Amino acid sequence: MSARDERTTLTPGTSLYDYALFRRGCDPDGGVPRRGYPLPDGPDRATGTPPSGPRLTWERAQEEVTTALAGPLADPDPVRAAAAVHHAVGRLVLLGLPDRTVRAVAARMPLEDEPAARAAARRLTRTGTTPTAVGVGVALLIRLGEPEDVPCLKALGLLRGLGSPAAAALDPLDRQAAALLHLTHLGRDHTLTPLVDAAAATPDGGGFGDGPATRRVRDALVALVNAPDRDTAVRWQARRIAEAARLDALLRARPDDTALTTAAGRLLHAMANRYDNRADLLDYGPAAEVYRTVVERAGLPDPDLDHQALLLSLAQDLDSGTGALLDRPAGEREALLALLERHLGTEPPPGPHDRRAAWIARNRTRPFGHPVPPAPLRIEVVAGDPDTRTAVETRILIDGRPLVPALFPKGPGHPPEHLLDGDALLPGPEPREVQLAEADCTEGCCGALYVTVRRDGDEVVWDGWRGAAGPPPPELRFDAAAYGAEVLRARADESWAWPARRTARRITAALRARPELRTRWELRWIRATTDWRDPDRVTVDFGHRPAPAAPPAPGEDPAPSLTFAWELPDDGRPPEVRAEAAVARLESADPKTYARLTGGDRRLAESLGYTWPRQGRSPRNQEE
After folding, report:
1. Residue 437: which of 450, 421, 452, 420 has the closest Cα?
2. Under the phi-then-psi rule, with left for phi > 0, alpha for psi from -120 to 50, and beta for the rest, what region is 290?
3. Predicted TM-score (pTM) of this structure
């Protein structure tokens, strides 16, 4: 039978490590399946599939795993320890604990004797015959692994279910090997395959020459990152792509490669982006070196719009984004920004009516010319490249360092409508807790960053932090007069905003000043935003809940509600005029009569005579 038809069942005593070597040896030149080789079959192969019945809580699972493994892992005899772990994990599987839970606890459980645990982990990874037992060994090597463990981890990582833990164990030991495993197992489609195959064929470690292997990696990287539909793969895997390709070494080997330099710049910007995922830039070891290389080589005689947009995006990252947090020699960041300013030039790009060209024209001077040393507090609103999916965010800089990415890795700062347009950041008579940022997956999933703002004599104090990663941040104190002036300056500065966004801000401000409109039309909430798919379109979203005939009883579900959207296409009028006209219509006519129903309770909608939106247009449920 062919190598690809090779059966997956080996003798019951075969270790998973030997099985992984066997599978790879059957087809050494073939690509690894996208999720890795399937695990072998066999009656003694514990799969970690929980039995029927209630599952253990996380707290109980921690207790069970720690109790089961603590004794064996302290045994100085690795053979005896590995055998005891094998026996213990079999019992844990019978309790209904999946592999991933056992691995997660093993990776963080306290260890009384680390050398003994390391020896046991090595024995498990090299001789273990079940996924759960081998997974415990891999999980321990995340903390305890050393360079001699790299070959074993690389082999085990080729097996389905072990790719992610093996990549985590390889991260501190061999970043390229970790990245290749990550891309092999987690790539969303086959667009990553040419790069993975080319990078896997290069010699381990060292630098690059300019031979065929280097050119294959370069060509695959440039084709992937510079492709018109690059956004999906590059957005989610930018750091791993750079590590797999050894981007820093590739740049050193090819100093005159303009396309490679452009690809490197795009990867840096994708790593710094904090929308939809944590910014990976601070986890990318060569980031500062690659920034320096890209900026120094980025000048072109006649840069096109795409190149100018990339330069401006890199400048925004270096000035007030995650790129400002990288460790550099004193003055290097300012020098790189000055060089980017020269590369951008002073002439606006062609096409004044093009959305991207207009973005460059509005923002081309904003990242530059800030005083040195920096002010104690600076607030910048940053709108990213409209051709890249980025959020408008309020960036707060303390002594020149952006606050949110330094404290909260799970999402960008809130937009100005949340932090600046009201009085959130201004101290009131009582201390006020302010949410500065929220995880992209919502606070209920991965948290949010909060600070308490209060007045103390001639100072404004930030303290009472909640949700920050790591140790609690120190108390921050600002001169009250300078603080208030900076908040008001940032609120008034709309040089970043395009006309539709300015229109939406004015509508929202007018509605905030006219709360009686909500009562008049039985609106639970109302707000104006710009449409994500069409930023030049203003949308007024609101919710409606009819007044109940009688107040709900304690514990009774609230009455059903509906959500609506009123869309205002750009008609060319100034933002002030458009906002005034929109508010006048809201004052004179019930918006439910001309807005589009977008969701809520279908029975309520039909009872009131509304047509339920057809499938595909039923929107998100919106709450306030």
Report:
1. 450
2. alpha
3. 0.86
